[in-house]
Amino acid sequence: MSEQDVVLKIDHVVKRFGGITAVNDVSIRIAKQSIHGIIGPNGAGKTTLFNMITGIYNTTAGSIFFNGKKINGKQTHEIAELGIARTFQNIRLFNDLTVYQNLLTACQKNITYGLFDGFLRTSKCKTQEMSADKICKNMMIEVGLSEYKEQKAGNLPYGTQRRLEIARALLTNPSILLLDEPAAGMNEDESLQLSNFIKEIRLNNDITIIIIDHHMDVIMNICDLISVLNFGSLLAEGTPKEIQKNQRVIEAYLGVDE
Ligand SMILES: Nc1ncnc2c1ncn2[C@@H]1O[C@H](COP(=O)(O)OP(=O)(O)OP(=O)(O)O)[C@@H](O)[C@H]1O
């Protein structure tokens, strides 16, 4: 992979929590417009890596570069503004707001009118509200949520809540979307639908997707490349086919007899 093809470079990154080394000298290059999987047994350091990419944790050592610019040490909102969005292991929607209202919250960064404009309903206020309305409606069409527009997020089926969460993240126009276990708790049918949905997102947007998941059907179906972590270290990297037959990966998942 040439440097120009790399959108995110994780370079010798380490994260320690007291005596625990959660991520141990990990280097991964993520190609532009790829779907890249991060897998590994429980506690392997996957979410910690996401937390460092998004600025929730600072790195203990090493660097992370987004389009060639160092981002570790930046605040979460600065990283989000640069174009890295994420979803979390536990769905984080506003359950009492409707689908439409949840999406509107993601358009706030485009709203610049103040209290005065809002009170007097100035043209600036109306134009910005109309634009946010259009953006949200288009997104609902794109991701198949229009029929749920007025439903409260908390009442939606699980798979639809995930879809809404991803749609809301997409409204920030990210270059990179990080999905942390989006298929958690899904049955086979739901995870197949999610796989197709993620593939469509990549097809319809100029975007790179990095996904953590324990559902191997999803990972093997959608990823171009997979990085495998084990006890905080990078164990293997390759295409789904290569990873499936990698003996070290199989042993890490199944364990080896002493
Ligand atoms: N804030 C923290 N303080 C202390 N230890 C932490 C913290 N966050 C993570 N860890 C530890 O770091 C290690 C890696 O955790 P992490 O959550 O990144 O693993 P994971 O691969 O995402 O696991 P899972 O698949 O179960 O979500 C674990 O031993 C975990 O207990």
Automatic annotation (TrEMBL):
GO molecular function: ATP binding; ATP hydrolysis activity; L-isoleucine transmembrane transporter activity; L-phenylalanine transmembrane transporter activity; L-valine transmembrane transporter activity
Domain of life: Bacteria
Residue ranges annotated for the ABC transporter domain, each copy included: 8-256
Pfam (any one): BCA_ABC_TP_C
Nucleotide-binding in keyword set: yes
PANTHER family for this protein: AMINO ACID ABC TRANSPORTER ATP-BINDING PROTEIN, CONSERVED COMPONENT OF ABC TRANSPORTER FOR NATURAL AMINO ACIDS-RELATED
Name of the molecule in the record: Branched-chain amino acid transport system ATP-binding protein
Organism: Tepidanaerobacter syntrophicus
